[in-house]
Design a protein that fits this description.
It is a single chain. By secondary structure, the chain is α/β, with parallel strands linked by helices. It is about 30% helix and about 25% strand. The protein has a six-stranded mixed β-sheet with strand order 6-7-8-3-9-10, sandwiched between helices. A four-stranded antiparallel β-sheet has the order 2-1-4-5, with helices on one face. It has a four-stranded antiparallel β-sheet with strand order 12-13-11-14, covered by helices on one side. Strand 1 and strand 2 form a beta hairpin. The longest helix is centred in the last third of the chain and has 14 residues. The C terminus is likely disordered. It binds adenosine-5'-diphosphate (ADP) and magnesium ion. The site of adenosine-5'-diphosphate has 15 residues, from strand 2 and helix 1. The site of magnesium ion (MG) has 6 residues, from helix 1.
Length: about 375
């Protein structure tokens, strides 16, 4: 059987009492992709991953890995073909990093894993600490050890929950490079609330917000679709409203919004050049001085905020961004998404503790 989609969910819904953590999530992640699972804290990322891993039962809907329905009876989390890194990996504290990896190798009956273990310890900068008790590892070291453990059995699919959240910028950069390097070797699906991680690493992105998927496509397509539709315009003080009225009367302008002294102009499809020409001409004829007029270079952050504000509609109908979303951008999304990897990542204030099954290792004892 040819498996096109290594992860597939339909109408996946999860309720915790009154809280609907997932609300009809449809996912289709093609084999071989590096897919970022992006969303603010509390969006439902960990819940989705736990259901995929067979560690948590869904309330409704279906979830498949490799074309097979996932099951609590046979959790994928403990199968060799799936590597899993929990959000806060927990290891038996008395074991050393080296012993943890040996234990994982034994669990999977990997003969001759010694060489690979030492390679991984080197690669994750743990060689010096290899014989030290894991209890004395920092959070970043545990995360690196967890990544090494997930990679060790050379799985076909890697499910990583915020794999770089505890790392410093340098460690983060290296870990993301390692993840990029997995392309062609396996499929990676990793959650993050850090937009730069996705921009740097992924070829696909799934955006989730309040338990709903608001965008799912190739990163390149998403950015391209949002990249060239808008201009920002600033005019001399006091003439903003005149300029806004004028812009709104121009046929190529789909939408014009004024916020913080900046007029954001969204072009009708294919009317970008026409917009610039007609607006500049009209402003000149009204003697309104243009201070700045430039094409908006969209970041993934602004795309995310607009997609969320538009309820994901723009993403699915291919109609492009919602220029008017500037004023209505979701404050929750804005607060908890982090654009830059060098920013201090906020702790997951909404996320539950990972106590149920904290790591592959613990669960397989
Ligand atoms: N065991 C649980 N009991 C009650 N609510 C939960 C539980 N696990 C998660 N939630 C809620 O479900 C929502 C999604 O959580 P989570 O999947 O951890 O989000 P994320 O990983 O994107 O930060 C949040 O509102 C969270 O508070
Ligand atoms: Mg989480």
């Amino acid at each position: 059987m040819i498996v096109n989609h290594i992860i597939q969910t339909e109408g996946l819904t999860k309720r915790f009492g009154q809280v609907t953590a997932l609300d009809g999530v449809d996912l289709a992640v093609p084999e071989g992709s590096i897919c970022g699972f992006l969303g603010p804290n509390g969006a439902g990322k960990t819940t989705t991953l736990k259901i995929l891993l067979g560690l948590l039962a869904q309330s409704e809907g279906s979830a498949k890995l490799f074309g097979r329905e996932v099951s609590l009876a046979e959790p994928a989390a403990f199968k060799r073909e799936v590597g899993y890194l929990p959000q806060d990996p927990v290891f038996p504290p008395r074991m050393s990093g080296l012993e943890v990896l040996q234990f994982v190798a034994d669990t999977y009956r990997m003969g001759g894993a010694r060489k690979r273990i030492h390679e991984l310890l080197d690669r994750f900068d743990l060689a010096d600490a290899a014989r030290r008790e894991v209890a004395r590892y920092s959070r970043g070291m545990k995360q690196r050890l967890g990544l090494a453990a997930a990679l060790l059995p050379e799985p076909r699919l890697l499910l990583l929950d915020e794999p770089v959240s505890a790392l410093d910028p340098e460690g983060r950069f290296e870990a993301l490079q390692l993840i990029s390097g997995m392309r062609d070797k396996c499929t990676v699906f990793f959650s993050t609330h850090i937009l730069a991680d996705v921009e740097r690493t992924c070829d696909r992105v799934v955006m989730i917000h309040r338990g709903k998927v608001v965008a799912e496509e190739r990163l390149q397509d998403l950015l391209r679709r949002y990249s060239t539709e808008q201009y920002e315009l600033r005019v001399e003080d006091g003439r903003e409203d005149d300029a806004l009225d004028l812009a709104r009367s121009m046929p190529p302008v789909r939408e014009a919004v004024l916020a913080d002294g900046v007029i954001r102009l969204t072009a009708k499809h294919g009317q970008l050049d026409g917009l610039r020409r007609s607006v500049v001409k009209a402003l000149a004829s009204e003697d309104i001085m243009v201070v700045d007029f430039h094409l908006v270079k969209r970041t993934l952050e602004s795309v995310f905020l607009d997609v969320v504000a538009a309820g994901g509609v723009a993403a699915s109908n291919g109609a492009g961004g919602s220029g008017g979303a500037v004023a209505s951008r979701d404050p929750v999304a804005r607060r908890s998404m982090v654009a830059s990897s060098s920013a201090v990542a906020p702790r997951d204030e909404l996320a539950p503790s990972d106590g149920a099954v904290s790591s592959r290792k613990e669960g397989s004892k």
